[in-house]
Amino acid sequence: MKIPGLKIGDIETRLPIIQGGMGVGISMSSLASAVARSGGIGVIAAVLIGFKDPEFHKKPRETTFRVLYEEIKKAKEMASGGPIGVNIMVALEDYDEIVKISVEAGADIIISGAGLPLKLPSLVPEDSNTKLIPIVSSPRAVTIIARRWHEHFGRMPDGVVVEGPLAGGHLGFKPEDLDKPENKIENLIPKVVEAVKPLEDKAGRSIPVIAAGGIYTGQDIYNIMKLGASGVQMGTRFVATEECDASREFKEAYLKAKEEDVKIIISPVGLPGRAITGEFIEKVQEGQKRPKKCMFKCLKVCGYPNTPYCIGSALINAQRGNLKAGFVFCGHNVWRVDKIVPVAELMRELEEGFIKAAEKD
Question: Superkingdom, according to UniProt (predicted)?
């Protein structure tokens, strides 16, 4: 028994695993290249990626552009030929520029969510080989995006990530819809696969559906792919790796987390998000946090000065290990994390778990 790979156009991987993009600074060139070397697709998160650079606080915008370009180039050099993607939130103020820079730097894939990426193809040259993959949370969203892309740009998605409510970070659901049975990833997959079929006919090629949210083991991957998904996107497991770009303190927050520590918060992006509760989040909920100024101008939808906190500063602080001044995004299963391992070891574990599940079935 062999685990199937993932095929997205002319990109083929040994394993059907995409490492989810995690910002700020959690998935950069170190993690992304390690995943690509190990048979998956590694993904860099573009948001505020230049935060470690000495120039960042003086010129956050220009520094982000430069460092993003450098990180993509670096990841590609270290990936041993494996594919490198970039996760770009639609909610970013500089979305257009960041997409263009990612393509110019040689990103193999752009994965885009936190809003519907309706104009994404217009930002990519027609002769570019960069694959475009929207993140959706419903079959309706797939149809809307595909119709817009086809009518306005003569293009179809190269794949679709469908993200369920157990994912980490920002979620594409209203808080009251997170627990509805129809939104469980296992119920969403068949509907999205069905919605993609007429798009494949129109495109004359396959459009793989990649499932995300709450996928933790090789058994989970097997179960998800039996429902029609071509692969999975996983985030939480990759934070607990040696190559992950987060600080040791950030990773240890995953190791220490208990099931009851995982909470749904409301982000300044206007979306619910899943995070590990702590001192910072408690103060936000008590109304004690207000941003003194908007330093980064990173989000279109931030709402400064009325936003409860600066998410950019909070996530930068968390990445650096200052959890009193920030918080840690996580997936539903973070409490199951009990060790930090090399990426190659994690990928082997997932592959072996898949094969065992397939042999038992």
Answer: Bacteria
